[in-house]
Amino acid sequence: LPRAQLSCLARLLSAKNLTADFGRFPPDLLLFFDSAEVPPGTCREFYARASRGNLDLLPRGSSRRTGLLRGARTCLGVRSSRLEPGQLGSLGALVCDMEPESIPASHPGILENLKLCPALTGAQRDALNAVLLTGGTEYGDPSSWDLQTLKDLGPLVLALNQTTLSLVAKAAREEFSRSIAVTYGSQGHSQREKSPTLLRAFAAASASSHARLKRSTERCESKPITTNTITTNPFSLLDYSTEQFNLCLSNDILIENLEVLLEQPLPSQYSQIMKEKVDQFYPEGMPEGQLRRLGSLSRLYTEQEISRWPVTSSDTLLALLDPSGGDWDDSQAQQLISRYLALGGILTGPLLQEIGGRRLCKLQEEQVEQIPAEAIGAARQLNISSCSQPKKEQLYRKAQVAFAGLASTPSTYYCQIRPYLGGAPAKDLKDLANTGVAIDMDMETFLALNPEELQKLSVTDVKNLLGKNLPELKKAEKEPLVMGWVERQSQRELDCVLDIGLQGGMEDTGTTTPAHPTTPAGATSMATNPVPTTLPTITTPPHPTTPAAVTSTATTPVPTTLPTVPTSPHSTTPAGVTSTVTVPTSSHPTTPTSV
């Protein structure tokens, strides 16, 4: 199953509390389990089984993959670089992510773990060769290796450097070269796809190790390569030098037997010769039907050459993108897809799967806009994390249409649309959070949301989205995206609603006006509160009495509505100034009270 489907399935099993019974599930699925849900008493068995899964399903350096190794080390009591046999048995392929110094520091049995690694880093290869050169492993000193030893090393042969290989007897190397050619010829197509790197690499090394010292010639001095040679004894091609391979293979025989020749583990120099012969056979350009036959040769063409290919059919593009032909350079693949679209091609679901999310993100926005929504649905899930924000939004809108029929079942809908949520607006994220169904958004998806839209989510929205993964938010609190969101939230709400210890929110501060504002010394202030511009109605006797010691001087009516006077809660009257407030009490004029 694809990575995204395994992730969704693991989430559903967790929701039903079925993860404890991990023995029922395949190792690939266990890679997506929450290790915190594994009972401590069975953790050793869990990691031993999970380590047999395909680690390539988890990107190297991802939080889930590093967390898996961290959990395994804790469970197995690994506290140093040295790994003992019992620990190695449970770690399996997880050893592939350990530091290079673990290789020479550990029990020699670590070499069996390293055979499980899809690829070793340069530092790990150096450490492996250093261990082999000591002669202290079960394989002994390289100078004593024979055919069986090389076979026993298996994929580790690819990591051997020139120093190690130079110590191996020439006869053993040549015998091994022929044996892998025979093995390669007897394998089915699906098996060949799993091991061409090993077979081709060692065949190339063997070919270069016995370079022929013949004078340059312009004619075939060996047997001419015929259809019978290619179909009945293809391994004999390794006996031809590159020069003789070129001179003894005619263009007609090559075109007739192209697929068979491309299936042989021939050195890369031979492939370049075959490309040149194909071009000679089609001087006016290759017909579209022949493009489908190119296989690995297609990867040798330049962008300029690809721009002239007649790629009009989706079947042709699928054949060219087939990974069995090897990896395309990004610039080549971009040119190939652009050529197909320029000639009126439409990107279908199967094509999008072959193209992959990373290359999809390299298309122009107008090219992305041409993708039908149903193609997104048929492509299942694509990793579009490397896309620009506008492209993420384009693809999200298409995914929304593609998966609209699943909206009534939020958990299923989320599993399908999850890779595209980086382009979702805040409104849609809020709707997803408030479906009443546990979404349990993983932190990888959360951190990939549009930063501007994330800032619009409330504390409750985030709590509902993350569900059981809410504690992961605390672990990610130093992420700029999380820090920016936290700063916009009330600290009290973060504490009360989330309760996971997030700090950095806004403190709740009141705006209470002090009851007694400060007045400078020497000033007499009568205005302790803002003066209203419209006075309240006060009922007074018809003939008010003027208080003693007050002289009435007003003979004109005083308006009941005062002009607007700017005031402030902390008004200060300058020293030596008398503050006078006039308060009318009725329609009968009264003398202002002077204080």
From TrEMBL:
The keyword NADP does not apply. The keyword Glycoprotein applies. Residues 509-538, 546-595 have a biased composition (Low complexity). GO terms for cellular component: cell surface; membrane. GO terms for biological process: cell-matrix adhesion. Residues 505-595 are annotated as: Disordered. InterPro entries: Mesothelin, Stereocilin-rel. Its main location: membrane. Keywords: Cell adhesion, Glycoprotein, Membrane, Signal. It is found in: Membrane. It comes from the Eukaryota. Pfam families: Mesothelin (PF06060). Belongs to the mesothelin family. This is MSLNL protein. It comes from Scytalopus superciliaris. The lineage of its organism: Eukaryota, Metazoa, Chordata, Craniata, Vertebrata.
